[in-house]
Amino acid sequence: MNDKTTSADAEGAVQRQFEAYNARDLERFLAVYSEDIRAYRPPAIEPAIAGKKALAAFYATQRFSHEGLHAELLNRMVLGSKVVDHERISGVREQPFEVAVVYEVVNGLIRSTWSYAAE
């Protein structure tokens, strides 16, 4: 694999998925993810979600079905092909909660994510 992902490419991909998330636009959201996406929730070492079909099913039923769903970007760091977002999520739990998500972008698509949610 000859990946030439720049910081700007990585940040652009993550920003597009962030905007699609807040619009609850599943098609636009999925367009930024690779077919072999792996979503991790440490400390578990196995992916919580593996593959674009599983990602689509999860977001269709567990996230985009929530009317009040909204992510607020609190901070973003871009390190080459990696983007780290600190977000406040509303509409999933009774109270908003914060999460740090590390996105790995390869060939312009998000290939892996690691989510660390506050209790």
Q: State the share of residues found in helices, binned by percent.
A: 25-40%
What is the total number of structural domains? 1
CATH topology: Nuclear Transport Factor 2, Chain: A
Assembly status: single chain
* Unreliable segments of 5+ consecutive residues: none
End-to-end C-alpha gap: 38 Å
For the sheet with most strands, the description reads: 6 strands, mixed
CATH architect. name:
Roll
Q: Tell me, what's the shape?
A: globular
Counted by DSSP, the helix tally is 3
- Please give the radius of gyration in angstroms: 13 Å
Give a count of the beta strands, DSSP E runs of length 2 or more. 6
Structural class: alpha+beta
**SS strand fraction:** 35-45%
H-E order: HHEEHEEEE
Kindly provide the name of the CATH class. Alpha Beta
Strands of the largest sheet, in order across it? 2-1-6-5-4-3
User: What would the average pLDDT be, to the nearest integer?
Assistant: 95
